[in-house]
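Note to self: user wants both folds in one dump. Writing first protein now.
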Amino acid sequence: MLGPFVLRLFFGAGLVLLGFILPMIGSEAEHLGAGGFALLVVGLAGRSATRPFSDERAEARG
């Protein structure tokens, strides 16, 4: 099962793509791209805040 971080990452990436594609076909959807980018940033920040890199290294060592 996908975790919440992965779901936010995919959802944010999808919104970013929509924000770039829809204006090309005539729709006013630039705000979707900005919202998707913000969601990606929040997802990445939440991931690093909940599991610092030092914890991941400690788990890898055993």
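First done. Writing the second protein, which came from a different request thread.
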Amino acid sequence: MPGGLQQPNAAGITITWWAQPLSPGAMMHLNANNVAPGGITGAYCLLPSDPSIVPSCSAPAATFEPPTALTLYKRWSFFTLRLSSSNVATLYVNGTPGYSVTWNGPMTNIKELDIMGYSSTSPQWTQGFVSNVQAYNTTLPATEISLLYREGIGGVPINLRNLVGWWPLNGDAKDYSGNNNDGVVAASGVIYTSGWTGGYYAP
């Protein structure tokens, strides 16, 4: 899901989503790029769905602290990408901070933000399911990220003041936040399925 974000107040950005990779070799591409679409300068991580593959990240400075027992293949997991005003991108997995990347700002103009989907710099499609995508124009605290995880895959947004987009992806790509940021299904292979509960275990 590629797209652009403008953040004039530099208060931070938080994106949350549930995902279930189906291919053990697929990569979930995460890219917060402050140079230009297709560039590689910025916070950039490739998180493999196969836990035996070491994640790769690229940034001026980066640290990797993977959660214990990170198992993603054919299981629903809750992901949070939090971009702070101090130019730190942190990836949470199931409510736990896992990978932290720092890059040279500014936060005020992120030209490309990809979560899963297709990367122009590392062309790999994500094969799997995604559900309940939420976007906030603030840096959610760890307590709220944990609460969203405990709500489960059908949970509702918890910070309505800073909510800018909510896409349950339950049969359509409409934005249910009230901000009319409806999505567009661009790929021909996208399907909505009633069998999404396979591989889901309540927190």
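Dump finished. Worth passing along: The helical segments are 142-151.
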